[in-house]
Design brief:
The structure is a homodimer of 264-residue chains.
Chain A lengths: L1 E7 L1 H4 L6 H12 L3 E8 L3 H14 L2 E5 L10 H8 L4 E3 L1 H13 L7 H5 L2 E3 L3 E3 L8 E6 L2 E6 L3 H18 L4 E10 L11 H8 L9 E7 L2 E10 L2 H19 L4 E6 L1
Parallel strand pairs in A: 1-2, 1-3, 3-8
Antiparallel strand pairs in A: 4-5, 6-7, 7-8, 9-11, 9-12, 10-11
Helix pairs in contact in A: 2-7, 3-4
Pfam families (chains A, B): CinA_KH, MoCF_biosynth
Protein name (chains A, B): Damage-inducible protein CinA
Organism (chains A, B): Anaerobutyricum soehngenii
């Protein structure tokens, strides 16, 4: 199972906001063992969203989209995704009622035309009510491909993802991933950041080519991090696969570089 | 001039870090009026970095890459970019001296093999010394296409970008962009967040189709934002293009929705 994240929003391309959605979804996918090879950000432009979706569906099975589900003309994620799977947008009574009630609770009794648009969803899609806002989550599946659409505002995205989309995505994976961070510490006379990634990588040698667990080094502003990531059918299986490599790293670093281990 | 951002790093795909680099570069590009249609994140994998670069160069003139310039085996950005333009990696004396001196200042007198790799750069490339770290910035140009490579750690990326790459990128643009945020305020009895994007968009109507300046609405956690963005050959020209539309928005909102204006 390979996933890909597509974030739709011109505000991301203008640098007005940082893409915390991509990080949150990536972390969730890593935890449940779904591979992710690409994240793409595209603006509110029909042709470009279509092209990105086309590329994504050629190289991944599950596309998770965020943004572009709002009520305005430049919100076009569901229109593009629907037409991609040859579906029309149809009226969804439950979503209409959800939007109406939510607006009513704000003291707004009359819906605008744009607000009514929130109740249009691709025919045949699974609809996940948004507990934190108006735009629902939408799950479309066709053959062995699926598109999950989540609202853009981070609070709503997280709420819809954990509500129900999570269950759907979880079922697609039969793997669990576990990571351990090994944070290298410099000798007392050197600040952490000055140990450097290269000497640590040189010490680790061939371990960096290992497959399960994978081992990677990262230069951080406060030092060097070694990340060991194992996968398995259960958390225990992943931890068992990880153990011999962590022990080997500890042996290699012993007496040369001090370190601390953190499970993540 | 159309640019595209490609961030290389498996840690971004695992959700270990949030992609602040993409935001910073996007903002810089917007300020100097270079269009950006896509941001892509790809892991430390040679084939996939190649594919992303191939796609990016087909739809953009300037590719700004971050990450993958470090000393370890999984750092492969410069190798891929060099081979893409049919160039070899060659030894760069000045970078070698920079790395040697910087390590010496940390009290490290002997370079590892991995550290020496930092001094290999694509032949014919412009090299920008990194004032905050080891890996230099690299600018490659061929025909009307250019690739700018920046180190991944945000402090180093910013330092190299503002050092010299900025000058190079600035020269590619003859446009300046200016944005104004109009933050809508609800009536006293309603919290800001409950005004809703839809009624604001409905009021604005056709103004949302305007081209210069563009006008867009955004649902924020504390309310609704209208962003007006104008371009021109100078900041004054952009502000002049913006003025009539801002005045029209003020007239439309008058008496219906309170608002404050912020230049950005």
């Amino acid at each position: 199972m390979v996933a890909e994240i597509v974030c739709v929003g011109t505000e991301l391309l203008l640098g007005d906001i940082v893409n915390t959605n991509a990080q949150h979804i990536s972390k969730e996918l890593a935890h449940i063992g779904i591979d992710l090879y690409y994240q793409t950000v595209v603006g509110d432009n029909k042709e470009r969203v279509w092209n990105v979706l086309d590329t994504a569906l050629k190289r991944a099975d599950l596309i998770i989209m965020t943004g572009g589900l709002g009520p305005t003309k430049d919100d076009l994620t569901k229109e593009v995704a629907a037409s991609f799977f040859g579906k029309k947008l149809v009226f969804h009574e439950q979503t209409y009622e959800h939007v109406r009630k939510r607006l009513e609770s704000y003291g707004i009794s009359e819906m605008t035309e744009s607000q009514k648009k929130q109740a249009l969803v691709p025919e045949g899609a699974l609809i996940v009510t948004n507990p934190a806002g108006l735009a629902p989550g939408i799950i479309m599946a066709q053959g062995d491909k699926a598109i999950v659409m989540l609202p853009g505002p981070p609070k709503e995205m997280k709420a819809v993802l954990s509500e129900c989309c999570h269950l759907f995505i979880n079922r697609l994976s039969d793997q669990v991933f576990v990571s351990i961070n090994i944070k290298c510490k410099g000798p007392d006379e050197l600040p952490l950041k000055e140990i450097g990634e290269a000497p640590v990588a040189d010490l680790l040698g061939d371990i960096l080519d290992n497959e399960n667990p994978t081992v990677a080094t990262y230069a951080k502003e406060d030092g060097v991090l070694i990340r060991v990531t194992a996968s398995g059918k259960t958390r225990e299986e992943a931890l068992t696969a990880m153990q011999p490599v962590v022990t080997k790293i500890a042996e290699i670093l012993a007496g040369k570089i001090a370190w601390v281990k953190e499970e993540v």
